[in-house]
C-alpha cells in the first residue's frame, strides 16, 4: 500500500518523501507546484495537481491503494497570510475540506497533518505544552487551527483518525545536501543568514533587540527538518497500529536567540555576516520553546540532530550546492 504525501515538493514535504522512501515505503506525491519544486521529488508517482480539484484528487485515490495521507499542502507564510486571508482560508481550510471528503469517499482512514506552533499565539507558558491555550495571532495559525478542528469532527463522524504535528522552527536540510529550504521570497532566519556568505544579500537585519530575552533578540526552538520527517513516519505507524487521534509538539526543547544563530552561522561559514538591528517585526513573540515530551513518550520520537550547529551545517551544505 502507498503513502500519499500532499505538498511533497515543498520544503518539509520533500524531506519527508525521502524519509518514507528510506523506510521502503511506496510514495505518491501530489503538489500544485505553487511553492514546491518539481526537482525536489524523486517519487515514482508525481501528480502536479491542486488538492482543491476534488475530481483529480479522487482519481489519484483510484489509481493507487492509499494506506495513509501525510498532508503538507498549504500556504505557510505568516506575513503573507495577514495580507491575503482569502487565499489562506481557500488554500488551507477549503483544501483540507476537499482532502477529507475524498479520503472519506475512498475509505482512507488515517491522516498525519503538518501543523504549527502558530496555533498557540502568544504563549502562556514556556516550554509550550499541547494542553496550553490555542489563540493564534495571525491568519496562518488560525487556518491551521481550523484544519485541526475539521479533522476532529471528521474523525468523530467517519473514523478518520489523525495526528497533528505542531512544528516549531523547521530548519536544516538533508545531510546529502541535494534538497533543502528554498522559499521565494525567503522570510526565515537561517536561510536568510546563510544567503549573506553566498553573496545573495549584503547583510542580515535583526528584527528587534529589546525583547525580554538574555540578549534582547527573539528566542526560537529550531528543529532539524529530518527530525520532523522521522516524526511523520512514527505518527503514520502510530495511526496504522490503531491508536487514537492526537496532537504533538515537535521541537528540541532548547531556545536560541537570533544573535546566537548569527554567531553559529559565522563559525560554520567562516564569513563575518554583517547584521544590523532593525525595528521589531509585528507579531513576533519573544520566546517560543516546545515541550516535546508527549511525542517522545507516545510516538517514541527523539531528535537525532538536536544541535544548532548540525542544523546550520546541513543547511549550509545545501546553500553551497544550490545556485
Ligand atoms: N528574524 C530576523 N531577521 C530576519 C528574519 C527573521 O531577525 O531577516 C527573526 C524573527 O524576528 C524571529 C526569528 O528570527 O524572531 C525567527 O524568524 P522566522 O521567520 O525564521 O520564524 P518564526 O519564528 O517567525 O516562524 C516560525 C515558522 C512559522 C510558524 C512560527 C510559529 O516559520 O511558520 O514559527 O510561531 F508559524
Describe what you observe in this structure.
It is an enzyme of class 5 (isomerase). One of its GO terms (molecular function) is UDP-glucose 4-epimerase activity. By secondary structure, this protein is of the alpha/beta class. The chain has two domains: 2-171 and 223-250, Rossmann fold; 189-220 and 253-321, UDP-galactose 4-epimerase, domain 1, CATH 3.90.25. Helix content is 39%, strand content 18%. The chain has ten helices and 14 strands. It has helices spanning 11-22, 54-63, 78-83, 85-105, 139-158, 189-195, 225-240, 258-269, 293-299, 308-321; strands at residues 2-6, 26-30, 45-47, 66-71, 110-116, 161-167, 169-171, 204-207, 219-220, 222-224, 246-250, 256-257, 275-278, 287-288. It has a seven-stranded parallel sheet with strand order 3-2-1-4-5-6-11, with helices on both faces. A three-stranded mixed sheet has the order 12-9-14. β1, α1 and β2 form a beta-alpha-beta unit. α4 packs parallel to α5 and α8 (258-269) crosses α10. The protein is globular and about 55 Å long. 48% of the residues are buried. The mean pLDDT is 96. The structure holds uridine-5'-diphosphate-4-deoxy-4-fluoro-alpha-D-galactose. Uridine-5'-diphosphate-4-deoxy-4-fluoro-alpha-D-galactose binds at residues 76, 78, 116-118, 140-141, 169, 187-189, 192, 204-207, 218, 220, 258, 281, 284, 288. Uridine-5'-diphosphate-4-deoxy-4-fluoro-alpha-D-galactose is lined by residues 76, 78, 116-118, 140-141, 169, 187-189, 192, 204-207, 218, 220, 258, 281, 284, 288.
Amino acid at each position: 500500500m502507498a503513502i500519499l504525501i500532499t505538498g511533497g515538493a515543498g520544503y518539509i514535504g520533500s524531506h519527508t518523501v525521502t524519509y518514507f522512501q528510506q523506510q521502503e515505503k511506496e510514495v505518491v506525491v501530489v503538489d500544485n507546484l505553487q511553492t514546491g519544486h518539481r526537482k525536489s521529488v524523486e517519487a515514482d508517482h508525481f501528480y502536479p495537481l491542486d488538492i482543491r480539484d476534488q475530481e483529480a484528487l479522487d482519481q489519484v485515490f483510484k489509481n493507487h491503494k492509499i494506506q495513509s495521507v501525510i498532508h503538507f499542502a498549504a500556504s505557510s507564510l505568516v506575513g503573507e497570510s495577514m495580507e491575503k486571508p482569502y487565499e489562506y482560508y481557500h488554500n488551507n481550510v477549503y483544501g483540507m475540506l476537499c482532502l477529507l471528503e475524498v479520503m472519506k469517499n475512498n475509505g482512507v482512514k488515517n491522516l498525519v497533518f503538518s501543523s504549527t506552533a502558530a496555533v498557540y499565539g502568544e504563549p502562556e507558558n514556556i516550554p509550550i505544552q499541547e494542553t496550553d491555550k490555542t489563540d493564534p495571532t495571525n491568519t496562518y495559525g488560525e487556518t491551521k487551527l481550523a484544519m485541526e478542528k475539521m479533522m476532529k469532527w471528521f474523525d468523530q463522524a467517519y473514523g478518520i483518525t489523525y495526528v497533528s504535528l505542531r512544528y516549531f522552527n523547521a530548519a536544516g536540510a538533508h545531510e546529502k545536501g541535494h534538497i533543502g529550504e528554498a522559499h521565494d521570497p525567503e522570510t526565515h532566519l537561517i536561510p536568510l543568514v546563510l544567503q549573506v556568505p553566498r553573496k545573495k544579500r549584503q547583510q542580515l537585519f535583526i528584527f528587534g533587540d529589546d525583547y525580554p530575552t538574555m540578549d534582547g533578540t527573539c528566542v526560537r526552538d529550531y528543529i532539524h527538518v529530518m527530525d520532523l520527517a522521522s516524526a511523520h513516519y512514527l505518527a503514520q505507524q502510530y495511526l496504522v497500529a490503531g491508536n487514537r487521534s492526537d496532537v504533538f509538539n515537535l521541537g528540541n526543547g532548547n531556545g536560541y536567540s537570533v544573535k546566537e544563530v548569527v554567531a553559529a552561522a559565522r563559525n560554520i561559514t567562516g564569513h563575518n555576516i554583517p547584521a544590523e538591528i532593525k525595528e521589531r517585526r509585528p507579531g513576533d513573540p519573544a520566546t517560543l520553546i516546545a515541550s516535546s515530551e508527549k511525542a517522545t513518550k507516545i510516538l517514541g520520537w527523539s531528535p537525532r540532530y538536536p544541535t544548532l550547529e548540525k542544523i546550520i551545517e546541513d543547511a549550509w551544505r545545501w546553500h553551497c550546492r544550490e545556485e
